[in-house]
Structures are given as C-alpha cells and as structure tokens.
Amino acid sequence: MISVEQAKKILSENSERGQIKEIALGECLGLVLSENIYSPIDVPSFDNSAMDGYAMNFEGHNEEWEVSNVIQAGDTSETIISPGKAARIFTGAKIPKGANTVIPQELIEVIKEGQIAYSGDKISIGSNIRLKGSQSEKHTQILEKGQVLGAGQIGLLASVGVAKVKVWTTPRVGYIVTGNELKEPGTPLREGEIYNSNGPMLEALLKENGVKQIQGYKASDDKNSLQKIIDRALSENDILLLSGGISVGDYDFVEDCLKTAKVRELFYKIKQRPGKPLFVGKKEKKMVFALPGNPASVHSCFIQYVRPSIRFWLGKNAVWDADHQLTLAEDVEKKPGLTYFMKGKKTGGEVSLLKGQQSFNLQAFATAECLLELPGENEVVTAGTIVNVYDL
Ligand code: AMP
Ligand code: MG
Fold first, then answer.
1. Which of 1, 301, 358, 272 is nearest to 175 (CA)?
2. What residues flank ligand 1, with Cβ below 6 Å?
3. Model confidence pLDDT, tens digit, residues 24-35
4. d(CA 361, CA 343)
5. Which residues have beta carbons under 5 A from ligand 2 (an ion)?
6. What is the CA(246)–ligand 2 centre distance, in A?
7. Integer Cα distance of 194 and 182 in angstroms
C-alpha cells in the first residue's frame, strides 16, 4: 500500500493533457488557452467620444461655436470641423478631423439653435476622447497561454475581433456505477436496496469541473456483464471512473475485469481514509479510476485524484497543490499510518470538522465547504496545526 504523497506523485507523472484545438469563442468558457494572444488591431481602432456632447477644436478658454455637423456612433464617414465650428457627437462616435476635445452636453450652454458656448474650468484640451489603441495596441499581448477563459477574457477577445482561440479540449468521461443494490432516485425501494447517489454525484462533480461529454453506465455485480460494460466504456471515453466493486468482497469484480481489459495498474490501495481501495490504471492514454463504492470515498477520491487529473487534461498547472493551508480548530484523534480527508468548514483562518464523517454518510455534504487533510503518521492532530485544505 502506498502513501497519499506517493499516489499523487505517480499520478502526476502519468497524467495526460487533452488535445489542442482551435475553438469558437462561444464554446470556450472555462477552457485554458494554449497560446499567447496578441491583439490583431488597435482598440479602440479610432479616436472616439467618451461622452454625449460636442466636439471642437478647443483652445482652453471660454469660447463659442457654431454647430455644423452631427456624428452618431457607427458613422464611418470622414467629417472635418473647421475652427469656430463644433460637431454634435455621441458616445462612441468617431472624433472628426479638426477637433481635439469633447465637451459633455451638460456643460454646454445652447445660446440659440445651432450656436453653443462653454465657460468653466472643468474641461481641458483633449478631454473626453478615448484614444486609438488606448485599450489594446495592435500586436501587443493581451492574454497569456495557461489563462482560464472566463467571461472577462472572452469579452476582451471579442473586443479585438478574435473569433477562435487554441485551447486544450475537454475529455470524454464515462462513469460506471456497480452494484445489484442500486435503484434510481424517483423509483420505489425494497428493503435491501439503496438509491444510486454516486452516479448523480459523479455527474455533478464532472460538470463542476468543466467536463462536457459525460456518459453514465450501470453494471450489476456479474462478471460477464461488467466486463462488457467496461470494454464498451473504455472504447467510448478518454477517462473512465467506476464506483464500487473494487474492494475484497466476493462480488467485487472490477479489478479482474480491468486487468482483462488490459488496463495497466498504476497503483491499488492507498494509506488513506476514506477511499483505501482506490485503483488507478491506464490503457494507452486513457486514465481509469476505480473508486470504492462508499459515497464519501467516491467524493474524497474524486477531489484528491480525479479532479487534479481532469484539470491537468484541461491544460491547468499546479493542479496537485492544496487550495489553502489553514489552522485546525480542534484536536482530532485518528488511526496512525492513514491520511484522513475530512469534511470541514472554514471560519476565518481556521478550519473545523463537521459531524458525521463516516464513509457512507452524505449528510455532512449539506454544509461541507472543504476537505482537510490530516497527515499519515500522527495519532492526534492537535488544534493549531496547519493543515492542507481543498475547496469543494
Ligand atoms: P462496494 O465498494 O461495491 O463494496 O460498495 C461499498 C458501499 O458503497 C456499499 O454499502 C454499497 O452499497 C455502496 N455503494 C456502492 N455503489 C453506490 C452508489 N452508486 N450509490 C450509493 N452507494 C453505493
Ligand atoms: Mg458493490
């Protein structure tokens, strides 16, 4: 059996990246750039007005002008303003030749139809003009390889006219829930049966992590039918997750079936709680995670091992690091030799444990904010210890 650190090291050395593809902006949310982006144009691409008002050649003191033109946002014609003249102008409209300043309409006095004046000290020469290239200059870098594309980055790309970018693609992920006892929520239960909570939970965890192509499968505890489903799921996905059937029970066939499917073992069993019998393997570039069936094991193993692997696939870096290091609020007794991952809540700089940490018990997930890691050798981890914390 290996330690959590060894397991993460082996996985980090064996993780795979997705492919790099050029993808339309509308499909890029949450994906990671695999190239630096340089602005193909100046933005703004022309000097334009920051206000609704009047554009003129302002000389810095009280003046009067005759209004000779109207320029609307979107007008592309070339307008020239001669000295003593002004153009009525609107926000975003092109500054006419001969104008150096925009005076907002609320500071302008309309003397009579077509005749305006300004007196005051709020405006200086050059005011209220957004200069060409003042957001992004042509050929300068605006985004960096490795950045995650959120709404702001996507807006920036659109503003410089970029319609497609190179990103790492998302994996196709399949998950197989195993167990004769499983019934779907919404159907009646007979005594001895339970609801399949791992399936919906895994599906949600995958979606939370940006996976778009998800395929769920269900297998009974029958070796032949499980083998068929594993073979099919392996052929249809880049990453395969299984829940249940990987322990030492008489009906736990997952390990055998994976070996028959030529999945190469990277490791099996980790000195941790929950989730000791985790199996991780690979078939060519495909990653396989056989998670122990207890829901807390599924959840904890997903956060510790599957999530970083998916993040790495998506092109992210530093995926194995804890999100925070916080102070443990209370003493915790544990079995020495096992790393514990426990559901917790953050308060200020501290992290405290929730009640109901058993691996079958999902109630603590109602309020859990994080998993905290209590390291292997200790028998008691004392209040005040700095521990690794992983956000949920
Ligand atoms: P196993 O690893 O197959 O021995 O399962 C361990 C425990 O997890 C058993 O109590 C199972 O009933 C439970 N379990 C397995 N699969 C699921 C599932 N999809 N949803 C909820 N509990 C499950
Ligand atoms: Mg089972």
1. 301
2. 177, 179, 181-182, 194, 196-199, 243-245, 247, 249, 292-295
3. 999 999 999 999
4. 11
5. 179, 244-245
6. 8
7. 5
Give the pair of three-digit tokens for residue 86: 């002004």
Please give the CATH number for the structural domain made up of 48-130.
Answer: 2.170.190.11
| pTM score | 0.92
Report domain extents, the chain. Answer: 4-18+169-313, 20-42+137-168, 48-130, 324-391
User: If you classify domain 324-391 with CATH, what class do you get?
Assistant: mainly beta
| pLDDT at residue 350, rounded to an integer | 97
Rounded distance, CA 390 to CA 344, Å? 10
Of the candidates 31, 40, 49, the residue with the CA atom closest to the CA atom of residue 159: 40
Distance CA 381, CA 392 (A): 22
For a mutational test of ligand 1's pocket, the pick from 221, 269, 294, 360, i.e. the residue with the most ligand atoms closer than 8 A to its C-beta, is 294
Q: Cα-Cα-Cα-Cα dihedral of 63, 67, 72, 73, to 10°? A: -20
Q: At the top level of CATH, which class does the domain 4-18+169-313 belong to? A: alpha beta
Question: Residues 107-162: pLDDT tens digits?
Answer: 999 999 999 999 999 999 999 999 999 999 999 999 999 999 999 999 999 999 99
Q: Ligand 2: distance of its center to the CA of 182 in Å?
A: 9
Question: Measured in angstroms, how far is the CA atom of residue 293 from the centroid of ligand 1?
Answer: 4
Please determine whether the domains at 48-130 and 324-391 fall in the same fold group of CATH.
Answer: no
